[in-house]
Design goal:
The complex is a heterodimer. By secondary structure, chain A is mainly α. Helices cover 81% and strands 0% of the residues of chain A. Chain B has 9 helices and no strands. Chain B is flat. The chains are: A mainly alpha, B mainly alpha. The interface between A and B is large, with 37 and 40 residues.
Chain lengths: 229, 229
């Protein structure tokens, strides 16, 4: 395993970057961060729609969320891989295909997290704000969301770790990320699949484990801040 | 889905059957393994705890696809030659995918069961013992019924995840629903019809699991908050 790491660490880290496309761990992280950042505003909108007083808005958001949650991410990836080029007329790179699928998928899951944060707030908060004459959107923006989003920070961070793991599915449509890079290494060595894929699992473990441990301090801060309120 | 011929639809239904089989096998194996892990975790001997903790953390921080690739490409290397030939002659993809998926899910399920057990105050156990019930009676009438109730909601969502995650097995060539959809799409270019049909099948499966879950909640009078799975 050490020999493989010695020979191919650069490829596993950044892919063939200066000479070819960026890949490896760096690409995996870029995909996860972009996916997370892009799905957050969508998730907030979906969550607001789900708690909307208008029934049809709440219903349609619920249908969307439940449908996305009911299908495998891989299916969603194939939808964006095969259908988007047909719809838009031009072909998307693997990066964008995977990113779009991830954003749709994550926004559905994250909206549930945000919604639970909104619903956990005491009703009095909204009622007080509204009875002071503040409009619906201003109430959401200045009273509800700041508290709700802060309270669900820990759940969002664990969602981030699972996004890192989900980027591995890009391998199926040949996106240059960590799993793809490891597979390239495996194809070069041919005789050492156990070591290569063991190493791959280990790299994911180190990245995700250290990430979730680092984010745990954030969780602790949130908890302390909430206890003091 | 009138765009698909009967033969194509039938072939997808066969894929669905494989998906369901894989799901059922994995669910049973994962559950049994999880129970074993929980039991090992309760043994008052530090290395037992370390082992289970390491097992759980490893499987939670490595993507399922990587586990599947690791088991499919790497593990057979360790097997004796004769057994390996036998395995490859007998649907190796399916059994290795089942092993990888079960091992991965067992980590999550064991945590669900453990948190269900932990949610019961120790005083319940003590009280039951103090009233003269035996250890087994206490377990059977006091602890386990309550633990099952608290772990049903997470177990239902875990089943849902496992059902969707079986799609990952297509990466190593298990001919399940996603694989079949992909295959028919590349033969016919009927993108919308094939992926539409596959998505509907997944959604039906997922909604069935959610429905079973809601029946269980009713049967065991579990309060899930807003009344949805």
């Amino acid at each position: 395993m050490l020999e493989i790491l010695q020979d191919f660490w650069l490829q596993l880290l950044i892919g063939q970057y200066p000479k070819g496309p960026l890949g490896g761990v760096v690409m995996t992280l870029i995909l996860a961060v972009c996916g997370m950042l892009a799905s957050l505003p969508l998730a907030v909108l979906l969550a607001i729609a789900r708690v909307s007083p208008y029934r049809w808005v709440a219903r349609s958001a619920a249908v969307f969320v439940n449908c996305v949650r009911g299908m495998p991410l891989l299916m969603l990836i194939f939808w964006s891989y095969f259908v988007l080029p047909k719809l838009t007329g031009f072909s998307l790179s693997g990066f964008w295909t995977l990113l779009i699928a991830l954003v749709v998928y994550e926004s559905a899951y994250m909206s549930e997290v945000v919604r639970s944060g909104i619903e956990a707030l005491p009703r009095g908060q909204i009622e007080a704000s509204r009875s002071l004459g503040v409009g619906y959107w201003t109430t959401m923006r200045k009273v509800v969301l700041p508290q709700a989003l802060f309270n669900v920070l820990p759940s969002m961070t664990s969602q981030f770790v699972s996004t890192i793991k989900e980027t591995s599915l890009g391998y199926v449509i040949s996106v240059n990320e960590l799993t793809f890079a490891a597979n390239q290494v495996n194809n070069m060595l041919l005789t050492k699949p156990l070591e290569v894929f063991g190493l791959l699992a280990l790299i994911y473990f180190i990245v995700c484990f250290s990430m979730s441990r680092a984010l745990r301090s954030l969780e602790w801060r949130v908890r302390r801040a909430r206890a003091m309120v | 889905m009138s765009f698909l011929t009967n033969a194509q639809l039938l072939s997808m239904l066969e894929g669905m059957l494989t998906t369901v089989q894989l799901f059922a096998i994995c669910w049973v194996m994962a559950f049994m393994l999880a129970v074993v892990l929980v039991v090992i975790r309760t043994i008052d001997f530090a290395p037992c705890r370390w082992f289970v903790d390491a097992y759980v953390e490893f499987h939670r921080n490595v993507p399922l696809l990587v586990l599947v690739l690791f088991w499919y490409f790497g593990m057979p290397e360790l097997l004796p030659e004769s057994f390996r030939t036998w395995l490859y002659a007998h649907n190796a993809e399916m059994s290795l995918a089942a092993i990888a998926l079960s091992l991965g899910s067992a980590a999550y399920i064991s945590e669900d069961i453990r948190s269900g057990l932990r949610a019961i105050p120790a005083t319940q156990f003590e009280a039951s013992r103090a009233l003269g019930s035996s250890f087994l009676q206490t377990m059977r009438f006091v602890i386990v019924p309550q633990a099952i109730r608290t772990s049903i909601p997470p177990l239902v969502s875990r089943a849902l995840l496992l059902f969707k995650n079986t799609s990952v097995a297509m990466a190593i060539g298990v001919v399940e629903l996603t694989y079949r959809a992909r295959e028919i799409e590349s033969e016919t270019y009927r993108t919308y019809a094939t992926f539409g049909a596959a998505t509907i099948m997944y959604l039906l499966g997922s909604f069935l699991i959610m429905f079973v879950g809601s029946r269980l909640y009713k049967r065991y009078r579990i309060n899930t908050g807003a009344g949805h799975a």
